[in-house]
Structure formats: structure tokens, C-alpha cells
Model the fold of this input.
Amino acid sequence: MYYSLSRLSTLDVKWAGLFDANNLHFSGQHHNPYYELIVIADGTVHLQTDETRMTLQAGESLLMMPWESHSGWNSHERQGQFFWVQFSCDPCLSEFVLDRASELNIVHAERTELRTTEIHHEDLLVVPRQFHSLERYKLLGLFEKLVMTMNQPKGYFRFHATLLLGEILRLMANDFLKKSHLDTAFPTSYLTFRELVNHLNNFYETDISKETLERMLDRKYEYLCQVFKRYTGTNIHNYIHQLRTQRAKHLLNNTAKSVQEIANEVGYPDPFYFSRMFKKIAGIAPQHYRNK
Done:
């Protein structure tokens, strides 16, 4: 079983510790309101969740859902120790169907590069429920730091704990990609697209001509248009108008500059054309936007 979490998830560490599985308390039923991740530090740990019994070795991890029932079993054998952390996650983790793994190769440029889009949560990290890390000692080292941070709180310890948990989950998710033998390399066209977006974001208020783009990116204009359309679903000129409108909104809200001055500043020598484009994108004329 696998779970997915958004790259932009809000994580909050509630508790972390190192637990000796020989403790009599371990054999009782436990139910926690938060996600719980355990990693075996040494030895063998016998753990039961609902009706499933498992034997975990050093370096193996188990991710449990909120309120999931769990307890120890086989208390007659000497058991090891495990690191554990309870944490909240918003949005929640979702069950991930492994058949969708190929979708992880799809580059969704509109989620990250474009400056005019809202935040989305589609970029997923996939974390196995039960796993044996390829980088066992690195994972255990991160958990040791996390436990120390929570047990000796000082300064921004909660923020530090969140960063450590994020790195733990990243390490596990990255191990999943390696073990799944997925091709995660990005195509050359995507690298070209990033160069193009970076140029547009920095020079949108200038006269971005076909010749300028070809000279700056050393690519034919038709190819640049094709690449941009493939990764965004829109065209270069529409994105430029969106960037200019974004900047114009800021100037209308925060300065006393006239509409004509703002039009010229964001790249429209003709204020009437600026007003027409602004209304097309914002749904309201510049002056009405400012008054409102």
C-alpha cells in the first residue's frame, strides 16, 4: 500500500521519541489522532495493526493513519527499539494506486513556474506504508535529530522539526522512485520551457518580439510557442498580458499613478489598448478596479 501527499502539504510534528518495544505498555492497544511513522532503530520489532501482524527489522518503516489501531505482539521474544513521530498533514494523505505511478513523469508546468497561477496540490510525493530504506543510516540519523529537537526544545524547534520530518518523507519518497525504476528525467523541451518562462517573468514589460526570443533562447519562435503551449495550455502573448495585468493591479492598489502612467510602465504605450486588455483579463476597467 502507498500514500501520496502534496508537495505543498502543511506538516506539524506533534511528538517524537525513541521507544523500547520490550516495554510492557507496547503490548496494549494504541490509537492516536495523528499520522504515525515508525522506523526500527535496531533489532526486531513485532507489530500488529488491526488484523495484520508484521515483523519489522532495523531500517524498516511503517506509516499509519490517524486512529489506526496498533499494538505489539510476540512479547516472549526480545525486541528492539524504534523511532516514532506523530504528525498532522494538511491536506490529508491519500491512498495511492500504484498503477498511476507513470503519471509521476508528467510535467505540470502551470503548477510551479507560471507566476500568475494559484497554488495547487497536484504535485505528489508517494510514500510507501511499509518500506525498507535504501539509505537506512541516513534515515535513522534524521530521526535521531528529530527526537533530539523535540526532546530539547529551544528557539524555533517546531520549525526545525517540520524541516526534518519533510526531509524524512522526501528520503522515503525518493527511495520509492529508485526502487520503482521510474524514469524521472525531464525532457530537453521542459528545460527550454523553464528558460522561456524565466525570460518572460523578468522582461514582460518590454517589447518581447519574435526576434528577441529567438536571439535570447537560441530557438526558433515556432518551437518556443509549441513548447509553451504544451506545458501551459495557453500561448506566450496571453501569459505576457496576464503578467502585465498582475503588475498593473499592484500599481493601481498601491500607488497614485495615473492609468496612463501605469499602462506605460507595464508595457502598453497605448493606454486605451491597456484598458481593453486589463478589462478582458480582470473583468473590470482599470479605474473601476482602483475605485472598487
